[in-house]
Write a structure and sequence with these properties.
Blueprint lengths: L4 H25 L9 H35 L4
Helix pairs in contact: 1-2
């Protein structure tokens, strides 16, 4: 992945997490109306987006930390 690739992964993860949260909480103010037409499908989408978003953010932060450590280990460059 390119040097700035962790940024893309991070922000994609944030967007996915926010979208998952929106899908999960939507029935609270929409009086139980599902976005996709069925509650179980909304729950599945919410779980997938929340999980994938969290994984993306976590991996992007780890990749950034590894890149920073590698840059600090090479003082001549």
């Amino acid at each position: 992945m390119a040097t700035g690739g962790w940024r893309l992964r991070y922000w994609l993860g944030v967007v996915m997490f926010v979208l998952g949260t929106y899908i999960a909480l939507h029935p609270l103010w929409a009086h139980g109306v599902a976005i996709t037409g069925s509650r179980w499908l909304d729950g599945t989408f919410a779980a997938v987006f929340l999980l994938r978003g969290a994984v993306n953010v976590r991996s992007a932060r780890a990749r950034r930390a590894r890149a920073a450590a590698a840059a600090a280990a090479q003082p001549g460059e």
